[in-house]
Write a sequence for this structure.
């Protein structure tokens, strides 16, 4: 039983400036030599992949809805937006797949800038276009998805 006032849990959210700063600190621990604990992406590809996700969320890029998203998107969305951690090895949306090599420092700087913009604007730019797999998301769903997604990939690289 709580004392007179129960503390409210602090939700991990990129809209929370303190948590956003923590995420940026974790990103800054990555180097071009960082290797994944699981999965096939290199660290530069992970940065490019996260940039693609943010660009979609912020309406910078409009991506077509995927066929399989119409069939499985709602079911997958419920699972991904739950409080459970993102499972390792889930398939990547075609629109967010990255191949080849990227300039790690440029991708890292761009990702940090996108996170800072998202946090500073309180996510006001999300919700312009549907997610390529999950379809329409509310601002709260976008935030939870972005927050869990970036945490998942940073954990993938041990930071």
């Amino acid at each position: 039983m709580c004392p007179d006032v129960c503390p409210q849990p602090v939700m991990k959210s990129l809209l929370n400036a303190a948590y956003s700063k923590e995420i940026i600190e974790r990103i800054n621990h990555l180097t071009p030599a960082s290797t994944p604990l699981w999965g096939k992406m290199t660290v530069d590809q992970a940065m490019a992949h996260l940039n693609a996700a943010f660009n979609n969320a912020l309406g910078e890029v409009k991506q077509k809805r995927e066929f399989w998203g119409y069939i499985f998107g709602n079911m997958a969305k419920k699972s991904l937006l739950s409080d459970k951690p993102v499972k390792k090895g889930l398939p990547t949306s075609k629109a967010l797949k990255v191949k080849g090599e990227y300039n790690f420092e440029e991708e890292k700087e761009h990702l940090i800038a996108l996170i800072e913009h998202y946090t500073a604007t309180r996510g006001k730019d999300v919700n312009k276009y549907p997610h390529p797999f999950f379809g329409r998301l509310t601002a709260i769903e976008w935030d939870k998805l972005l927050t869990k997604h970036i945490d998942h990939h940073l954990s993938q690289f041990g930071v």
